[in-house]
Amino acid sequence: MNILHIGKYYPPFSGGIENFMGQLLPLLASAGHHITALVHNHCSGQSVQSEIMKHVKVIRVPSYGRLLYAPISPAFPFYLHRILKKSKPDLLHIHLPNTSAFWLLLLPSAHKIPWIIHWHSDVIGASPNKLVRLAYYLYQPLERLLLKNSQHIIVTSPHYQQSSEVLKPWLKKTQVIPLGISLKSTLLADQYKNKAEQLWSRNFKKKPHRLLSIGRLTYYKGHQYLIRAMLNLPDSYLIIIGEGEEYQSLTRLITELKLEQQVLLTGKLNDQDLHALLASCDIFCLPSIERTEAFGLVLLEAMFYAKPTMVSKILGSGMTWVCQNNITGIHTNIADSHDIALQLKILLNKPDYCELLGHNGKQRLETHFNLHVIATMMLTLYQRDKHCLTTNKSNINQ
Q1: What is this structure's pTM?
Q2: 20 to 30 A Cα–Cα from 101, which one of 7, 29, 327, 335?
Q3: Cα(116)–Cα(113) distance, rounded to whole angstroms?
Q4: Nearest-5° angle of CA 121, CA 127, CA 129?
Q5: Which residues are CB-neighbours of 220 under 8 A, at least 6 positions away?
Q6: Dihedral of the CA atoms 296, 244, 133, 227 (nearest 10)?
Q7: Is there a contact between 137 and 177 (Cβ–Cβ < 8 Å)?
């Protein structure tokens, strides 16, 4: 089967959706399908680039920065039309949100092909950005048309499926297929143990409790509340990995609170250093404050290393489905530094309980979020939209 995935970006750009696509698409290709990813070039102003990455054809269309989080790519409809005409895909797999996907509505050739919408998150959460809310009035009618014309809509968790107001008219064609990660990773804890010790000791004088957070430094991630919680966790140190528009304001907050000896913003790290810190932390923290954090793929990375996780109890977010309270981790009040500190302190003082939660998380990962299982679910859905497809799922090497 010839399948065209349409997304915002693709690795080496690092983000939850992109990391998931970067692992899933090669697995689908290994099952004998022709997989193409049409995305934006995350490096502004670059010419179109086409390359084969792990048997997946990746076409990166030039972009010129972003406007309200959306890539500016005037050439995208041209390359979309060309690939539809030239390669004649059997199926379109559209990853939303992505404004460039709206060009499909104007291309007659696209309407002859089944569409699957992969609904990664709603556009509007509790965003403080008034321009985003204003722009959504123009975005929403086009979003509805995409949903209306789709054969199926993939939602990443039952919590999000039940809580999304946007998806309510289309619930009958939604299906829950969670995100997943490969369990064959070579980045094992023991392999990077020495590297991890160097990273922690290089930045901090002693070996206290180790807290870790990974994610784009943006408003909905809630990093400021986790940082403020450190005032009440004097025996703990925190490393936050990631880049984003909130870097300067978070740096100022750390300085104002005199937490330079407890909190470190690393910016972007290479995979080895990132996994070394994941393998050596005590608790992984994801303090996001709204449903824009629809799933939290990085939680699965922490669970791979048998680490207990901490998430905010956001109604309707998949985070609280991935991280089960007092089973694989803990839930804290939203944007509540005092409660974050209290819950973390209780857990850190129970090392055996910490270990149990981490063990439970590893088991949950293997059962529910194994990428091979996710790929098989995806291929089954593809079969419904292309009845002539005979999928040999045994080709997916388990």
Answers
A1: 0.88
A2: 29
A3: 10
A4: 125
A5: 125, 126, 127, 288, 289, 290, 292, 293
A6: 70
A7: no
